[in-house]
Design goal:
Shape: globular
Largest sheet: 6 strands, antiparallel
Strand content: 35-45%
Distance between the termini: 7 Å
Order of helices and strands: EEHEEEEEEEEEE
Mean pLDDT: 93
Number of domains: 1
Structural class: mainly beta
Radius of gyration: 18 Å
Number of strands: 12
Helix content: under 10%
Oligomer: single chain
């Protein structure tokens, strides 16, 4: 079944919202709040970066900027935990477009995170109850702020990647717009040192099946 490119989402201060917890960040994203994060001003020099290939031929995704590390404030404080969320564009279902999707995600965080991808009804803002393989939390390290990492590989050294096919369980031909919310709980562990940067960076590609 052919795939239609829908959207490439990268972490930017203009699109990622943060709040005290993940549930509130999701609610703010559902309300259409603009991004309220800041770019990290003191990134650790050995943090990995997520970069597209210089000759990326996946048009029009190749025009999207590379991810930046975002956080609630900069510099970050030790022992912080926040929710972050980003909302995709609305995507139509129709006689020509199916309800099956392929989503690819890559994430880096300092120090740890969990991430959830969920589908919503664009008209009601309600969670689509029949979605499969989505609305599932993926874990990257302990989320307790007092966690101590003593030896490598440290959490910030790991680039997490994930690809998932998803079906929304909606009858073919139903006229409906949907969107996805990618949400995070991200944690900066406590530290005795004065310099303890925190950051979250990610990229997600969304494809939709075409019924031809």
């Amino acid at each position: 079944m052919p795939l239609t490119r829908r959207q490439r989402i990268t972490s930017q201060t203009s699109n990622v919202v943060f709040a005290a917890n993940e549930a509130t960040a999701i609610a703010n994203a559902l309300d259409g709040d603009p991004g309220n994060t800041v770019a990290v001003s003191n990134p650790f020099p050995f943090w990995p970066s997520i970069n597209k290939y210089d000759n990326d031929n996946n048009n029009p995704f190749n025009a999207v900027s590379n991810p930046v590390y975002v956080w609630s404030e900069t510099p970050a404080d030790p022992g912080e935990s926040f929710g972050f969320a980003v909302r995709s564009n609305s995507i139509p279902l129709s006689l020509a477009l199916g309800n099956e999707y392929l989503i690819a995600l890559a994430v880096v965080s300092d120090n740890a995170h969990q991430v959830t991808i969920s589908a919503y009804n664009a008209a009601t803002l309600g969670l689509i109850a029949t979605q499969t393989n989505l609305n599932f939390s993926l874990a990257d390290g302990p989320l307790a702020t007092g966690t101590t990492e003593l030896s490598p590989p440290f959490g910030w050294q790991k680039v997490r990647f994930y690809t998932i096919p998803a079906n929304l369980g909606v009858a073919v031909g139903v006229s409906l717009d949907i969107f996805f919310v990618i949400s995070f709980t991200a944690v900066n562990y406590s530290s005795n040192g004065p310099d303890n940067p925190a950051g979250l960076a990610f990229i997600a590609d969304i494809y939709q099946s075409t019924l031809v």
